[in-house]
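BUG-265 | component: ligand-complex export | severity: low

The export step for nickel (II) ion jobs runs without errors, but we want the raw record kept on the ticket for reference. Input record follows.
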Amino acid sequence: MLIDTHAHIFLEQFESDLDRVLQRAHEAGVGYILLPAIDVASISRCLELADSHANPDHGPVLLAMAGIHPSSVKEAAENDIERIRELAEDKRIIAIGETGLDYYWDRSFDDKQQAFLRAHIRLAAALDKPLVLHDREASDDLVRILSEEKEASPHAERIRGVFHCFGGPDAHTERVLALGFHMGIGGTYTFKNGGVPESTNTVPMERIILETDAPFLTPAPHRGTRNEPAYVALVAAKLAENRGLTVEEVSRITTANAKALFGIS
Ligand code: NI
C-alpha cells in the first residue's frame, strides 16, 4: 500500500471527476491521501472530504490538515491564524500545513510569511501535530526559523514534520535531517533536471515519504497534464530504481514512515 502524503484534490481541477481520480488511486494501491490546506476556506473542504471518504473498503481514506500556504499569506487576515488554531484542535486534523516560505513568486511580504510560519510552528508544537513545510528558494530562512523556534519552544521534541517536495540544495539535506524532519519525494524526483539534489540518494529510507502535490508537478512520463494521486506509484518506482530496492520494499518502508509521522493507525 502507498500513501500520497500531499495532494490538493479539493481544488477545482478535480471538481468534475474526483470519483474517477480516487478510483484510479485505489487501483494503483494508494490507501491514504493527505490533504494539505492552502487557506482558511479550504480547511472545511478538506474536512468534508475526509468525512465522506473515511471507509477504507470504499477506496482511499482522505485525511485533512489545517494551515495557510505561504503564497496565500499575502491575502490572509491577521486573525486567520486564530481561525486555524480553532480548526486545528479538531482531532480529525492530522497535521499543520501547508506552511513554509515561498520567495519565488513575490518578495513583497517576506516578513508576513515568516510571522505566519512561526505561528504555525508554535501551533504544531502546542497541539503536538506534525508540520508540512513548503520551501521555494527560502531554505536558509526556513531552516533558521525552525531552529530558532525549536530552541525557544517548551515542546521542542514535538516539532517534527516533512519538507514537502524536497528540492535541495545539497547543503540543505544534512540540515533537514539534523532537525529530525522527513523529506517528501514527489514528481520532481522523476524529472531529469528536477532540482532534487544528489544528496537525496543517501538520505536514510526511514526519513522518506512519498507525495504527488497533485494537481501540480506531474511526474514523468505524464508531464504537462494534471497530476493525481495514482501517480505516486511512479515516484515509488523511480525511488526503487535509484535505490536498488523493489517497489514493494519502497512501499512498505515509506508507508510505515508516513503512518508513524502522521499518527495513522
Ligand atoms: Ni502543496
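Assignee comment: Attached the raw record above. The chain is about 40% helix and 15% strand.
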